[in-house]
Design a protein that fits this description.
The chain is an alpha/beta fold. It folds into 2 domains: about 15-65, no CATH class; about 70-210 and about 250-335, Alpha/Beta hydrolase fold, catalytic domain (Rossmann fold), CATH 3.40.50. About 25% of the residues lie in helices and about 20% in strands. The chain contains 8 helices and 13 strands. Strand 2 (about 25) and strand 3 form a beta hairpin. It is globular, with a radius of gyration of 22 Å.
Length: about 350
């Protein structure tokens, strides 16, 4: 085509910062140039002057990631059981050693492969795991996309996550005996479903999660959520009661053998705390390894700095124990916990559990 020019850019994300609460390019007053932000997994979001779509001139050169064992990201493809090709992103430490075996955590929420070139800020955990935090501490993190079939959200998540785990466990640098899963909210529901259908994972964390769809359906807003929204049931409870039961982890509490850490706050306005009470009660009745963290004054996610720090430490200690063989902390040996920033001491009894 006449006049067409080929433009090649490195992997990354370029966007313009908001101006007056509107997302449009910030243009210089007297020149045809714009201010933009560029970032990649290994490049902090810095400011650039953009002259067209090809020429970028750096205004800032911030590199906080240089102080850490940072991460790299790679896109992987594998085949699902139904023959479709799925994709997900693998995050590895920058000092990755192909001769080592790494524990791996699968984190999921809808589809996350479009975040491959994002720069994740290190932060305390308020809901989802912080990828830089875990990767810098010796874990691999994988984020598989989930493609849903209406009426079967649980099996859809199972097919995507389990197939990804089986695929990656074939690599010699993945410790297939020490794989964990983590999800919050809808991802927490998927975690509950997965651990009641497979013993493939050595540990799991579910935050603000649903265990009983039949109960939540009857709550205000539940009908629309499951019939037309993220719940993806596509039918009423009375039209397809078997679907609601089959997708409810609580009905398979006796099948769960994976150590499970739950985080659910009484002030949660999105997922009723009664879901956690029902789920924990069923699992304790069946003699399962389960822990519940609940923070006063917090809601669907954790926002206060002291409680975010508390949850971050406990989540790391939980996965370190089951995926790295670290000693069990004192809080995991006690029946009831109602404190913040306490009980972190490691015990000598690595086998004792609640």
């Amino acid at each position: 085509m006449g006049g067409a020019k080929k433009i090649v850019l490195e992997p990354g994300i370029c966007y313009c910062p908001p101006q007056d609460d509107q997302n449009y390019p910030v243009k210089a007053a007297c020149a045809n140039v714009f201010v933009s932000v560029r970032m990649s997994p290994t490049q902090y979001p810095n400011l650039y002057v953009m002259d067209g779509a090809k020429h970028f001139h750096a205004l800032t050169n911030l590199e906080p990631q240089k102080a850490y064992n940072w991460y790299t990201s790679e896109l992987y493809h594998w085949k699902l059981d139904d023959g479709r090709i799925n994709e997900g992103v693998l995050y590895k430490p920058e000092n990755f050693d192909v001769h080592k075996k790494y524990p791996i955590i699968f984190y999921y929420y809808e589809q996350l492969s479009n975040q491959k070139n994002s720069f994740y800020q290190p932060s305390l955990t308020g809901n989802d795991i912080n990828i830089p935090w875990f990767v810098s501490n010796g874990y691999l993190v994988f984020t598989p996309d989930i493609h849903y079939t209406i009426g079967h959200p649980g099996p859809s998540a199972y097919n995507s996550v389990v197939s990804a785990a089986k695929y990656l466990s074939q690599f010699p640098w993945v410790d297939g005996h020490h794989m964990g899963i983590q999800g919050h909210s809808f991802g927490g529901f998927e975690t509950n479903y997965i651990v009641t259908h497979t013993d493939l994972f050595a540990a799991a964390n579910a935050g603000a999660s649903v265990c009983n769809l039949t109960d939540l359906y009857t709550k205000i807003g539940g009908q629309d959520y499951f019939e037309h929204s993220q719940g993806r049931m596509g039918a009423t409870l009375w039209e397809k009661p078997e679907w609601y039961i089959e997708n409810s982890p609580v009905f398979r509490a006796d099948k769960m053998n994976t150590p499970l850490l739950l985080m659910h706050n009484e002030g949660d306005g999105s997922v009723p705390y009664t879901q956690a009470q029902e789920w924990v009660g069923a699992l304790i009745r069946e003699g399962k390894k389960v822990w519940l963290l609940s923070y006063d004054g917090e809601e669907h996610s954790i926002w206060k700095e002291d409680t975010r720090l508390d949850f971050t430490i406990r989540l790391c200690q939980f996965f370190d124990h089951f995926l790295k063989g670290a000693p069990m902390p004192r809080w995991m040996n006690e029946k009831v916990e109602r404190y913040v920033n306490d009980g972190f001491e490691l015990t000598n009894d690595a086998d004792k559990s609640k």
